[in-house]
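Colleagues,

For the teaching module next term, I've prepared a clean inverse folding example: a structure given as C-alpha cells, and then the sequence designed for it. I'd like students to try predicting residues themselves before seeing the answer, so please don't circulate the second half yet.
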C-alpha cells in the first residue's frame, strides 16, 4: 500500500503489509508496528506527523520482511505430480543438517535490523 493511514484510520499488521506466512516475520511485524504506532502517537500532538513518523520507521523493516525470493512460493505449491515429487525430494534434502543450516541462514529474518525508538 502507498499509505497505511487516511485521516484517523490507521492500518498495522497484516491489514497494512500482509507478508506471506513463508516470511516467518508476520507476528514480529505486527507487534513492532503496534509499538511504533503507539509510541509515535504518544510523542506527537499532530496526528499527521505521528502517522508520517510511524511509516518512516516501519517501511524499511516491512520491505525487508516482505522480501522473499519469487521462486519460493511457486516451489512450495507445485501444480503437477512431477512438481510435487520434486518438492518432496527437495524438502527431504533441505531437512538434512548442513543444508538445513544453510537455508536457515540464507532466509532467516532478522528482527534486530530495525532500530526501535525508545518512547519512554
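(Answer key — instructors only)
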Amino acid at each position: 500500500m502507498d499509505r497505511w493511514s487516511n485521516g484517523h484510520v490507521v492500518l498495522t499488521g497484516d491489514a497494512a503489509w500482509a507478508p506471506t506466512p513463508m516470511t516467518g516475520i508476520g507476528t514480529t511485524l505486527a507487534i513492532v508496528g503496534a509499538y511504533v504506532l503507539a509510541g509515535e502517537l504518544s510523542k506527537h500532538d499532530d496526528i499527521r506527523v505521528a502517522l508520517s513518523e510511524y511509516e518512516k520507521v516501519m517501511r524499511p523493516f516491512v520491505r525487508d520482511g516482505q522480501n522473499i525470493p519469487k521462486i519460493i512460493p511457486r516451489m512450495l505449491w507445485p501444480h503437477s505430480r512431477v512438481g510435487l515429487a520434486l518438492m518432496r525430494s527437495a524438502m527431504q534434502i533441505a531437512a538434512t543438517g548442513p543444508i538445513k543450516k544453510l537455508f536457515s541462514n540464507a532466509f532467516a529474518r532478522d528482527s534486530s535490523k530495525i532500530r526501535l525508538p525508545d518512547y519512554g
